[in-house]
Amino acid sequence: MTNDDLHQLADQLGVTITTHDRGPKGWYHHHTRTISLRSDLRAANYRCTLAHELGHALAGDVPTGIAHFDQRAERAADMTAANMLISHAEYAAAEALYGAHPGAIARELGVTTHILAVWRDTYERQRT
Description:
Layout (H helix, E strand, L loop, with lengths): L2 H11 L2 E5 L5 E4 L4 E5 L4 H17 L7 H19 L2 H11 L3 H8 L3 H15 L1
Parallel strand pairs: 1-3
Antiparallel strand pairs: 2-3
Helix pairs in contact: 1-2, 2-3, 3-6, 4-5, 5-6
């Protein structure tokens, strides 16, 4: 998905995207249907953070204050973001170009190494 696709998805979900200057890279507030992204994010972080927060929006996540459940919601949002942003074909093409080098593959795919690792981990678990 491109940034335009992500913004279109936000529109379809009725989610408003705003920015903030300091603090976390992003957050989602379910009751106001708002995603806020830190204004200084570079391209890959912007894209991955927006996809992650859209994962929360799709799931209707509201923080519980209970670490176990909040961590599960964060992991699920990461998995949603990874699946939105990385296709098997795109990954295979990037890996053919760069071998197994995660930094180069992430750069080629326009994602962070964290989201790439989440995608790889999810894909590996599905294969076994």
